Amino acid sequence: MRLHPYLTLLRRNRAFSRLFTAQLVSFAGDWFATVAILGLALELTGSPVVASLFLVVQTGCFALASPVAGVLADRFDRRRLMVAVDLARVPAALAFLLARDPATLWIAFVATALLSFGAAVFEPTSSASLPNLVDDEELGEANVLIGSAWGTMLAVGAAAGGLVAAVFGRDIAFVVNAASFAVSALLIVGIDRPFRGRLPASHHHEAPHGGLRGIGQAIGVVVRFARGNRTLAALLLSKTTFGVGTGVIVMLAVFGRDVFKAGDMGIGILFAARGLGALFGPFLARSIVGLTERGLILGIAGSFGAFAIGYALLPAAPWLWLAATCVFVAHLGGGAQWMLSSYGLQRATPDEIRGRVFSFDYGLVTLTIAGSTLLAGLLADQLPPAIAVWSIVALAATAAVGWIAFSRPVWRRPHRSRAQPVPPEHVD
Fold first, then answer.
1. Which of 40, 194, 268, 275 has the fewest CB atoms nearer than 10 Å to its CB?
2. Architecture of the domain made up of 4-193+215-426
């Protein structure tokens, strides 16, 4: 795994470096807060269902906002949109300070929903903008680094968040999260490269409509984009298929706090292991399978296997450090599949609809994650932790087998260096 191309990109491309740093900062704050929120919910209620509901709200609100977010990303200035969303999330993040007992826990749910609405706009807009902030030959390295940013800050932010929450109290974690959005906004304001590419002179493009008509149009555009193209459909379904099993993540709070009796620190360690896996997964996938069309599909299939194996072994781990190793292996697959599917979609999608495609992609996966997380919370409340984990893993493995069967024809095609762009007139 050669680091030189990645370091060169960060040194040479100031626009990308600022976006990458902004992602690092905001992700760190997010995971500071997530560990504190899960610990707060378990402390005030003692119920894994309530803890899982925070993740359900987080992912469900993201999914609900995604169709609108796609229209915004393709209709308005993407840089200004991202800055506005960051600034709006500062007071929402501070609202967690008002949740002090079971009677005020609802405030934390509202704050979680508001932050999720903001993320639903920010994340797809960032992904849609990335190909315009780097040169064509840099896009592979840029996706690996952006994919690793989430894992890096999950590892650092979750571990540090657990430590800070245990030593200094949860309020500090909530303040750090709010400050991270302000810093992110400052970094993005300073990016001087355009976030949107120029349309070909021969192509007449109509901006997406607002309101309900725009939402319906956004969904229709993406459906037409994927129809009849097995590779594109497989890439759009990749994250969603992975999301079927991600409800198992709520069990990390149960294992860290209750099974291993390690409190917020135990939750932080397991989430940090998840982050380390997501950090290294994109680098390993790039070096092992490459970024050809066939490599993307094979790499995603292998990622599903790593996730299932890692979590299947988790309940058998007798010690916290061994459990963390299982989580690390599982999320090597998680980080790899996210990067591979995002890269493929960026290559194949025209810039003028890229915001809607990524919002649709993110909306599908978060909707699936919300359902999976709710199921995991219910299972955790009724079954022993080990049985709950194995039940979710079995569901995830079944979904993965279905995706692999759907994607198999792509493996048999003649070699192509990458997913081919669809002409804009065919999709808009």
1. 194
2. Up-down Bundle (1.20)
